[in-house]
């Protein structure tokens, strides 16, 4: 006599699977029957002119006509103001400069901020207490004075 190819464990798993499928079908039919009894159907949510959700439809008399040309997509271009137009050339005084090491610091005359200055950013040779004009450029550790000229 030959042994059955299906083991007891496989039969149990198959029975559980079929039972689950039947339960799911019963639940589905029960939900359908419940929906018919309520007579509800699909509930709607309306949005009023303030953007709030309501259950009442909007009044067609309150409808506002909007011209297509008035709708702006994206961000409007920024208009230049006097604050945006600034002079890139700053004036200041050399507070410290070491010629052997090739760097120093310049204090801005308007903001009193200190800016690092390297010998590679010099146009003229400078020394301490010289009045200079310079431009600012973003460096590794902050703003650096570049294109430094003696006045």
From TrEMBL:
Compositional bias ranges of the Basic and acidic residues kind: 10-38
GO MF assignments: DNA binding
Protein name as it appears in the record: Cold-shock DNA-binding protein family
InterPro entries on file: CSD, CSP_DNA-bd, NA-bd_OB-fold
Residue ranges annotated for the CSD domain, each copy included: 89-150
GO cellular component: cytosol
Source taxon at top rank: Bacteria
Keyword DNA-binding among UniProt keywords: yes
Region feature (Disordered): 1-38
Gene3D superfamilies documented for this protein: Nucleic acid-binding proteins
Keywords: DNA-binding
Pfam families membership: CSD
Lineage start: Bacteria, Pseudomonadati, Bacteroidota, Flavobacteriia, Flavobacteriales
Keyword DNA-binding: yes
The species this protein was found in: Dokdonia pacifica
């Amino acid at each position: 006599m030959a042994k059955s190819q299906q083991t007891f464990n496989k039969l149990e798993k198959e029975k559980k699977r079929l039972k689950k499928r039947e339960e799911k079908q019963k639940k589905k039919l029960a939900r359908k029957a419940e929906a018919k009894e309520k007579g509800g159907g699909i509930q709607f949510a309306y949005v009023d002119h303030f953007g709030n959700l309501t259950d009442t439809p909007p009044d067609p008399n309150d409808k506002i006509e909007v011209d297509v040309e008035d709708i702006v997509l994206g961000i409007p271009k920024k208009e230049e103001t006097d604050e945006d137009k600034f002079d890139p050339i700053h004036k200041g005084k050399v507070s410290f400069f070491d010629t052997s090491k090739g760097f120093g610091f310049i204090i801005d005359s308007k903001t009193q901020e200190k800016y690092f200055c390297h010998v590679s950013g010099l146009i003229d040779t400078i020394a301490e207490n010289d009045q200079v004009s310079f431009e600012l450029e973003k460096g590794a550790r902050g703003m650096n004075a570049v294109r430094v000229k003696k006045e």
